[in-house]
């Protein structure tokens, strides 16, 4: 059987509640949670964002717990009846229950479909009947031109909404619009009671040696830098840019400050601010840039603030592959296709197993940023003995073993 082609982006696919098919049905792309039970679901092709008031069952996990689901494809395929490959469009974590919510596209009954599902830490998958959930929809103005395509078959409207962030009652929306200055950053108050605020965005791309106004922000978050609300935005190939929220007024043209070039030939997937306790129990704050073709970049909030206050990059990089600007720590998060802040202790990721191709949903402990069970090392041999000086390593590894579902491997 020949399955329909699925565009590897925010696909313009069709779905209605219960996985029935109709050409006028929405497609589901970027996800973002508002306060508690509000889930924002973007339909990039239609240029709409729908806020769903999810039912609140009052259930929250008793404690932070790692996801260790090693074959999400099988779980999701059974839940939705998929008979072809599944494309995962975005991931978000419920701020109360900590369940994962995933927007996806798949072939069902030989026809392309799109759905939003919830997945618990135990691996229970539920398809959201969005038609039955109270909702309100906001339609964006001046969306991307549907006559423009990239690489012959990627329609520009699939980039109308590339990322969302909900902060202080406002939804920030990155993506494309029409016009010469296509890169656009919108602000919409929620509940949806008024018009959007739309700003065109320009930035200097040091790896390209030019100012750019068309390429959209691909991943972003709004962070507080010593009282200044600031958009931290990552672009393809991979400039990192700061944009003060105060300047994002309707109709303005804003020039962001390029604070880093993180590496060429890469698509940033997520920009995730989070806090965690260090080994001394002190709380430290970071921004994590998760990349598709490179290591993830960890940036301290102090370094980010200093870079935002300093002059931005204004000269081309000295050679192809040079990284310049704010100091980052590379993290070994390979194969990741989506990531989200899960809870106080964990980051949640979806990643492809590089050996089997299986889609996994697994958590990484903050501060460690790797999974011990991904490796066979000296420590795994049954006759290995931890020295007195290595007892801290033993305790740390025992914690990771418990996180990853291997309590029987704990060494006393």
Could you say how many structural domains there are in total? Answer: 3
Count of β-strands:
29
Judged by helices, strands and strand pairing, the structural class is: mainly beta
Please state the overall shape, judged from the principal axes of the Cα atoms: globular
- Cα Rg: 22 Å
Mean pLDDT over the residues = 91
Whole-Å distance between the termini?
54 Å
How many distinct helices?
Answer: 3
- Major beta sheet, specifics? 6 strands, mixed
Beta-strand residue percentage: 35-45%
The percent of residues in helical segments reads: under 10%
Report the uncertain regions. Answer: 1-24
How are the secondary structure elements laid out?
Layout: E1 31-33, E2 38-43, E3 48-53, E4 68-69, H1 72-80, E5 82-93, E6 100-108, E7 111-119, E8 125-127, E9 135-139, E10 149-150, E11 154-155, E12 163-167, E13 170-176, E14 183-189, E15 197-205, E16 210-212, E17 219-225, E18 228-234, E19 239-244, E20 253-255, E21 257-261, E22 268-277, E23 283-291, E24 296-300, H2 301-309, E25 324-325, E26 329-331, E27 336-341, E28 346-352, E29 359-365, H3 391-403
Parallel strand pairs: 15-20
Antiparallel strand pairs: 1-2, 2-3, 3-9, 4-29, 5-6, 6-7, 7-8, 10-11, 12-13, 13-14, 14-15, 15-16, 17-18, 18-19, 19-21, 21-25, 22-23, 23-24, 24-26, 27-28, 28-29
